[in-house]
Amino acid sequence: MNFDQIVKELMIFFYQFIEPFLSAEKEVVSIHAALVKLRQIRPGKAKAKQATFKKKYIKVWQRILSMLRKARCLRGHVDYVPHIQLLKNINCYIDPNFHQDIFEISTQLSAAFYIQYFQLRNRAAKEQVIALFQAQTNGAVENTHVNRAQTEDDFT
Fold first, then answer.
1. Which residue would you say has higher pLDDT here, 144 or 24?
2. What is the DSSP letter of 97?
3. What is the DSSP letter of 74?
4. Could you tell me the pTM of the whole model?
5. 84, 16 Cβ separation under 8 angstroms
6. How far apart are CA 142 and CA 25, in angstroms?
7. Radius of gyration of the chain from its Cα atoms, rounded to whole angstroms
8. Which of 12, 25, 128, 155 is the most buried (most CB within 10 A)?
9. pLDDT tens digits, 49-103
10. Do residues 103 and 117 touch, judged by C-beta distance below 8 A?
């Protein structure tokens, strides 16, 4: 796990999709301070520091997701752009190992969960979310077919 890269992707999402719309909010200033502290943690191989990093990383993402759920200027006023961009690149912005902890779920993310979690009301946004999940699912299926074909070739 590359901790520097994980923090860098988190900061990119925050400064690109949250901060421009909510720069005057107290919560944004608080999250900015938490990002600075998170970046200063150098976990290395120390398990205690890794656990601390993980807790703080999850907490920062949960605060950002809370803002995405509640802040009006991040929702309909901008056609749910931050939500859609997060979904398009979710494995880039949020380390896949942390999805379940951040979203506080025990299963994989689905379109229905994502729509309900963020309370998306815009029909176009809902359709985009469904299309993105279908594309991700189809890509995963195509990749498994390619992997199966490669393994079958290895045995012949």
1. 24
2. G
3. G
4. 0.80
5. no
6. 44
7. 18
8. 128
9. 889 999 999 999 999 999 999 888 877 667 888 999 999 999 899 988 899 999 9
10. yes
